[in-house]
């Protein structure tokens, strides 16, 4: 066999690097969930408070926390998850739970970038232009809870998937395993056969 036809095993992370990337992934994912919970509390305060100054403060803090932290934390969680998928036996689409987590993470990052952050910026701008002692009408609507409910559900689903790893292999994962089992890994193995 020529070297061009021999399939080389994919590059895997060393145990030390895998643990480091895993720590980064877990911390950023938990941070992402934590930011969402903090924003949920602040949204609750902004909708149900009877004090306009407290409402203004809750909205502006929500913008500061979400506006500065959500995108970097979500991107770190996404990139570290991609590195773990590519650099470990799990792959990105070999197992159903990993593929579902990948899709959910891509959706969550997209929603954060294109929906949540612009909404927070708009709400903060409206708050800054509203006089002290006057409620911000846009912040009084309970529909601000929908993004928080959706994102929290997605993050909890991803956590459950990571812990339980349900579903087995994807069709691609089954084919890749079958191919790997049929093709000798190296010339040394071929000589031993």
Give an account of the 3D structure.
Keywords: Membrane, Transmembrane, Transmembrane helix. Residues 178-193 have a biased composition (Basic and acidic residues). This is DUF2269 domain-containing protein. Residues 171-193 are annotated as: Disordered. This protein is mainly α. It has one domain (15-179). Helix content is 74%, strand content 0%. It has 6 helices and no strands. It has helices at 15-48, 52-87, 96-129, 145-164, 171-182, 187-192. Helix 1 packs antiparallel against helix 4, helix 2 (52-87) runs antiparallel to helix 3 and helix 3 runs antiparallel to helix 4 (145-164). The radius of gyration is 23 Å and the shape is elongated.
In short:
By secondary structure, this protein is mainly α. It has helices at 15-48, 52-87, 96-129, 145-164, 171-182, 187-192. The two termini are 15 Å apart.
Radius of gyration: 23 Å
Helicity, as a percent range? over 70%
**Fraction of residues in β-strands:** under 5%
The description of the largest β-sheet is: none
List the uncertain runs. none
Query: Which shape, going by the Cα principal axes?
Result: elongated
The ordered string of helix (H) and strand (E) elements is: HHHHHH
Termini Cα gap:
15 Å
Task: Count the beta strands.
Answer: 0
Mean pLDDT: 87
Computed structural class: mainly alpha
* Quaternary: single chain
The number of distinct structural domains comes to: 1
Number of helices: 6
């Amino acid at each position: 066999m020529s070297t061009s036809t021999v399939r080389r095993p994919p590059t895997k992370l060393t145990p030390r690097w895998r643990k480091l990337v895993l720590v980064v992934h877990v911390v950023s994912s938990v941070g992402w969930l934590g930011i969402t919970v903090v924003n949920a509390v602040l949204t609750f305060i902004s909708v149900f408070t009877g004090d306009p100054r407290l409402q203004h403060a809750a909205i502006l803090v929500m913008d500061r926390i979400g506006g500065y932290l959500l995108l970097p934390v979500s991107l770190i969680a996404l990139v570290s998850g991609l590195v773990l998928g590519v650099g470990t036996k799990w792959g990105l689409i070999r197992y159903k739970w990993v593929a579902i987590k990948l899709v959910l993470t891509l959706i969550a990052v997209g929603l954060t970038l294109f929906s949540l952050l612009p909404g927070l910026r708009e709400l903060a701008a409206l708050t800054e232009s509203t006089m002290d002692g006057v409620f911000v009408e846009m912040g009084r609507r309970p529909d601000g809870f929908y993004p928080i409910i959706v994102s929290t559900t997605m993050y909890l689903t991803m956590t459950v998937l990571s812990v339980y790893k349900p579903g087995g292999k994807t069709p691609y994962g089954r084919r890749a395993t079958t191919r790997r089992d049929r093709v000798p890994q190296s010339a040394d193995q071929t000589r031993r056969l």
